Here is the input.
Amino acid sequence: MIRFIAILVAAVLLPWAAAAQPCPGNRQALGTERVLEVDANSTRRVGRKQFPGTLPLSPKELVLTFDDGPWPTTTPKVLDSLKRECVKATFFLLGRNVEAHPQIVRRELAEGHSLGHHTFSHPLLRYMPLAKARAEIYRGIAADEFALYGERRSDPAAPFFRFPGFVPSPALLGYLQDRGIVVFGADVWASDWLPMTPDQELHLLLSRIETVGRGIVLLHDTKAQTAHMLPAFLRALKQRGYRIVHVVPSPSRRIVN
Ligand SMILES: [Zn+2]
Here is the structure.
């Protein structure tokens, strides 16, 4: 009974304990509030921009995600900003860029971020023959896994995938589900593929986040304007009482051979 109570108390206190972790050199850091394990057996698709449901987040909880990297002139700046604020994010990698800059994804891994997949060369998969689309997905995964872990696995360590251009097809969604891979959409984005100043992007994104109140935020670590606005964005989230959730794969996920 005492053991049960101890476990219960630990379970209740854990999120606060995580929040209390000091951030070296920055007492005002945004920090990472908690870790959320995502199990592919129970979570297939998340993000209300594309799908009916999203991650189980409380009000003012955000998951930060970055697509299309790594990119040598911008991703290191994004990583520096995240590190300064002790924020953990998820990167959806482009295999082509990973092959060109493997040291940057190894830094992402070393700094505790989650590494998901985003194809090899960013085609719009819905408009390709199914076999070609599947090959493109796995070419990306294999390139990412090789740079990260030294092995060209088709069964990724983090079974997280995002469709380029947010254009899935029912056949590919079914295929990824069968392979135990969670498809990430988004709940809010910065539209950072459009040219705008960092300040314009900051205000647009903050106003959109205030509207949705919680969710998965989509950014691109390949965009200079995003890398530039990130420090002010993270400080603004702290001031407005938002909290960061780090998504990681469930250790109990199904292994597919
Ligand atoms: Zn993309």
